[in-house]
Amino acid sequence: MCARDATESEEEPPGPAGRSDLGLTAVSALHGFGIVPDKVTRLRNLTRCAVFKVIAQGQTYALKLYPREYDAAELGQEIEFVRQLKRRGCSVPEYRTAVDGALYVVTRSGVRAAVYEWVQGRCLSVLDDRRLVLVANLLVAIHGSACGPIGTRSDGWVWTETLKCLKGIRPPSDLKERMLRVTRAGRPWSADERLILCHGDCCPKNVLWPAGSSVPVLIDFTNSISAPAEWELAVFCADVFISAANPTELDSLSRKVAAAYVTAGGTCDFGRVQRFLATAVVQRAILKAFNCAGHEKRAIWQRLRRTGSTFAA
Ligand SMILES: Nc1ncnc2c1ncn2[C@@H]1O[C@H](COP(=O)(O)OP(=O)(O)OP(=O)(O)O)[C@@H](O)[C@H]1O
Ligand SMILES: [Mg+2]
User: Fold this and answer.
1) Ligand 1 test: best mutation among 43, 112, 213, most atoms within 8 Å of CB?
2) Does 1 have pLDDT greater than 90?
3) Domain-wise residue ranges, the chain
4) Pick the residue with more confidence: 210 or 13?
5) What is the CATH number of domain 17-118?
6) What pLDDT, on a 0 to 100 scale, did the predictor assign at position 151?
7) Which atom, in ligand 1's list, is nearest to the CA of 291?
């Protein structure tokens, strides 16, 4: 999840992209990849990056535009990470190289653009036990394939971003102190722990389920960070919990996911998953509330309140 920019004015309305400035930017970026589009459609995402579905000569691609101020080194690292995973057989999209051999294109307005494989599938907001296991399998494959930190990517911005979002959402007073404590504390692991390259935003919205295949595809590596595997699992469980209309209890959900991860060959300490959950649920609640419409916020606060007793001292 790439957070919506608090200083941005109106979001571009979704629709045929060719009519808007951003649509023109999309078309010019595609030229940098040697793609002359027949149809470009902006997808409905409320976040700062704009995602398009592109059809060109019978092929379908995804195009993601990153705002000017987006860190160029981080974008390069993100794409390099996904490429490594793809080479090692993980179920992630294939990225296209620009005509000049670059990983991404910088348009005249400074917007950066990446083009990758379109996945014909859907996101499911509710994941049954079988699908939870399939996601856990995918995470084990990804964690086992990442060959260590790429470049100097730091996770500091995740926490800065969370704090920035907190300032933009005005949470209810009974939750505010808990949120401030978590965002000020930052990451819940220490720098000398064994860290692996994680997706960082593994959640149902970033998992696509292609029709006719039981293997999900993980997209959106914009938040990839070096973290303990247990943090990745905690983020996933926290997001499933905070997003669900009728959430099952966090404890049983996290036990299930951690057990599936271990069964698939991953190493994780369930106690650490549980400890990270305290931070992860608050962080996901803040990011989700910042990126959603007003009436959805109330439901998020209710779900967050439900977790209060789980983490009471
Ligand atoms: N390669 C792809 N194939 C099919 N659909 C895609 C692809 N990439 C993105 N999408 C769709 O676009 C949505 C937004 O893409 P992405 O997750 O990369 O951006 P985002 O800025 O995090 O937006 P959000 O937080 O709303 O998910 C995804 O949830 C998915 O539905
Ligand atoms: Mg996403």
Assistant:
1) 43
2) no
3) 17-118, 129-311
4) 210
5) 3.30.200.20
6) 65
7) 25
**Residue 101, class by beta-carbon neighbours within 10 Å (0-12 exposed, 13-18 middle, 19+ buried)?**
exposed
Which bound ligand lies closest to the C-alpha atom of 44? 1
pLDDT band, residue 167 (cuts 50/70/90): very high
As a whole number of angstroms, the distance between CA 301 and CA 286 comes to 9
Q: What is the mean pLDDT of the chain?
A: 89
Answer yes or no: pTM beyond 0.85.
yes
Stretch among 175-179, 187-191, 196-200 having the lowest mean pLDDT: 187-191
- Please give all residues whose beta carbon lies within 6 A of any atom in ligand 1, as ranges: 1-2, 43, 45-47, 49, 51, 62, 64, 93, 116-119, 123, 205-206, 208, 219-220
Q: What is the domain class of 129-311 according to CATH?
A: alpha beta
Question: The dihedral of CA 112, 117, 120, 121: what is its sign?
Answer: negative
Report which ligand 1 atom has the smallest distance to the Cα of 117.
1
- For 106, residues 6+ apart whose C-beta sits below 8 A from its C-beta are 72, 112, 113
